[in-house]
Here is the input.
Amino acid sequence: MLDIPTLALANLKEWTALRKPIAIQKVLENISPEDGRPGAILASPSRSNPNYYFHWVRDAARTIRTLVALQSLDTYETFLDSTIKRYVEFSKINQNTPTPSNSLGEPKFYVDGTAYFKPWGRPQNDGPAERAIALIRWANLLLEDGRKDYVTENLYDGKEPSESVIKADLDFVGNHWQDSCFDLWEEVNGTHFYTRMQQRTALREGAALAKALKDNGASTFYNEQAEKIEDDMERFWDAQNNHLKTTIDWKGGANYKYSNLDIAIILGSCYGYSKDFPFYSPNHDRVLASAFSIHNAFLDLYPINSIKELDGEPMGPGIGRYSEDIYNPNGGKANPWFLCTLAMSSLCYQAAKLYDKDKTIKINDQNIGFISLAINSSEESTKLKVGDIIKSGKIKNKIISGLNTLGDTYLRRVQYHGAEDGSLSEQFDLNTGFMLSARDLTWSYISLIIAIDLRDNTPINDD
Ligand code: NOJ
Ligand code: NOJ
Here is the structure.
């Protein structure tokens, strides 16, 4: 156990250095709970209001993916290796347990591995894709490390039907990505930007792994399906409103969600980011256009967002899932969430890193809003116009540092509303700023770890 220091407001650098190890420790405490099977990961230890005492496939996969990226930290290596192996065993049980959806898209399980039979928004087909991405990246590390036997026995066996976790998931994704399913918020049945991003990245990175393991037919199939997804995703662009739509082919659920603008687009871009197979990456024009609309949708939505400074430094708005959200209403409206606010920080830091590598930045109708917001968050303001072509030099540097500064403004919001002992719940109160809902949410900590690592520029996050 860490001796958790209480820390009143300090500058972001000190704060992030203190909070990252706490967040890692908090995540580890939610893995393999005593009353569950080894390898199960609690979404939160909260057993009521809400009851999150489950292994959610999506949350667990994101956790493992982040831990895999931490693998380079020597102190964790042995521990992580056995933790991930237990997660693999637990995932195999999940894949083979009969469930109400009878599909790998079953969203959550009890921590003892048994199925949840009550009504729920199912299937949620981002789950198997996210589990595949997490384990593909781990398999790549194992292969580099000369541990091919474990990979071919447990992760990718090249058989059909497969008895290994990654291949079973990839075959499911490759054959079922067209199916309608519930979104990551478990509310809307349709075709979702977030889900599609996870599916195509799983298939692209999976095709590369299949090829490395000489399963060439499968590799070709995964790439073909990924290409079809990419072509089909053109349908998410809403040129009139200048942002990506979160759901198309809407079949039911949340019919009050009229804007179709959701932080899920930003999460989809950040979590779908693939260094070797970029697609709608965090600095993509359409993603930035969506980020600008999201920022504006939340700017005046919550009373707490009228506080715009912390210790004299600019503080960004608290961000929720989407502006019409009514989940856990607080006077009729849902609250801001830590993981959504942190997604905006991560987007900014990752976009800055990507622009840094680009030769030129072309200013256009899609990116001008967010880039101008970023530039103006630094002291000296510069006016950009559509058609400008920015090459290396002073203005490019301003864009990059502006994005980092903007990322910090959202991070400060989390610094302000998170508890002094470093704990984070799911939400914070839109009126008072105090933490609310599921305590110690694994996904909140994972989001903080990702954001801090991007900020520190260490190569933890998929980079
Ligand atoms: C509810 C969220 O909407 C969903 O995305 C998440 O998987 C679960 N909570 C567990 O954290
Ligand atoms: C419970 C889910 O966890 C949450 O994400 C969702 O918004 C509500 N169900 C919708 O009813």
